[in-house]
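job 3f2a | input accepted
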Amino acid sequence: MNALSSPVVLSTETPGCSRPGARRRFAGKGQRALGVLLLAGILSAAHGASSDTQFLRLPVKEYRDKMKGGWIGQIAGVSWGAPTEFKWQDKIIPADQMPAWRPSMINDAFGQDDLYVEMTFLRSLEEYGIDVSIRQAGIDFANSGYPLWCANNAGRTNLRRGVAPPDSGHPQFNKCPNDIDYQIEADYSGLIAPGMPQVAIDLGERFGRLMNYGDGVYAGQFMGALYAAAFFESDPVKLARTALAAIPAQSQYAEMVRDMIAWYQADPNDWEKAWRLCQKKYREDPEYQKASNGGIDCKINGAYVLMGLLFGQRDLDQTILISCRSGMDSDCNPSSSAGVLFATIGFAKLPARFNTGLDEMREFSHTAYNFPRLLDVCEKLARQFLVRYGGRIEKDGAGEDVFVIPVRAPKPSALELSWAPGPIANSRFTPEEMAKITASNTPKRAIEAVEKLFPGWKLTDCGPDMDPGLRAEWQGRKNVVATHPLDRETGCKLKRTVDVPAGGKTRLHLVVGHDPQGDFDLIVRAAGAELLRKAVSPATCTQGHWLVQDVDLSRFAGQKVEIELINQPSGWAYEAAYWAEIAVKDL
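job 3f2a | predicted structure (587 res):
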């Protein structure tokens, strides 16, 4: 199937001319047109863009139909794969374990993170303009209220603590720089940039760096470039090669793309053989696991996107099934492969099982968008980026708008290695910027539990793991507050300023428990001085899972001091603390 339903018109113009010059029509439609686009872009770059500029033309109606198809592909892929997510790691999902597609599943994606996160980025572009700064993008992401994981969670945690981008995604502050996160959220950057891969690259520099670095950023730029090419190309190999030009050739992610193309061309009918080759190199070879977070690494999951896109050979169902059956993040990966494929086809030409039944008035979780508003904002932004990147909008003979898109070779970002990163930017939010970040890393339910049971104490740096908050009963005690460290290095803190009575002896009385499957370190500080550091574990808890501990505060008699109680991680496994008693008493 050709990428375009009507002939592509490519024009050659002398810079400065206000109207098109000589034009040539290409009967080969999408494939031949994109070949000319690539050649022209490469020649333009080689000769300093001194030759005549070339353009591709895309009717806005056709753009909107393909863009709509791209969104539906994402929705269908993630909905179909959702029941399998991360249930098969380092193994192929058996065919008989795959759920069957039901048209009603098209409405199962409104709460999926690989949709609502990228809509946050669209909202920033809509509200602050296409030149929105990376710092404002960081503020908007910091204020998001949805659950996050992996690099997204680490990046947002950094932002809320005042670490501004690009440092929020730098390996010094973010232990997940090569995670899949921006890869699954970059679809928007190509859907608003038909034929303009540079837009996807530049948006990756603004939004991808909120949470990723190195290959983690390139993965999203590659995905965005795939979508940008999908408006003019339908052949999966050509799509992959086109998008490859948008990322540093020396990166491991680019190496993975080249491998996937080569393995497909060597045996296009055996995707499981390619899966095994991919497993051996990108999972079992330590050289490709540097800065990796296991099965969440962008390279292995990006390979599974290409597995479906290439070996699916433009079959809608097989593209989704192969990307999903490859395992790991098996809902996000088919979402990406289906999104690109469906964009090459367009919404109107999709079979009824995919393009009917969507509840278009329902809003996507934590966003301002239902489906029609989503399409409208994408078209609005595409028009703006087109003009900003040297294109224009004309009328055809019927008075309909046509995008006139400049042909330009992409300029990839500089090469960065997450396992040998460059220096940090020392970027921090100003007090004025921090005042705009109203969201907290600490879950509201945990804050409310502390306020209720331990009035005067303030909870900070409490992570969302293990459902922190009030426990009506836990391990034989009633009314207990559960907390959890923010991350592997940052302990959860309970703080209060205490007036220590003069002329007497005062103690801090604590009863705190650990999870049966884990332990943590209890740290007590007063006026910045460490008074206690003790493991809360089976070895130290004499009353079941409970530690009863008194800390002498007499040295601070007559003073007002800040007390800190810290639930400090010690091994990052079931590190919750359970606070039953916190009281200042006489000795």
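job 3f2a | Confidence is low (pLDDT under 50) at residues 1-32, 39-51.
job 3f2a | closed
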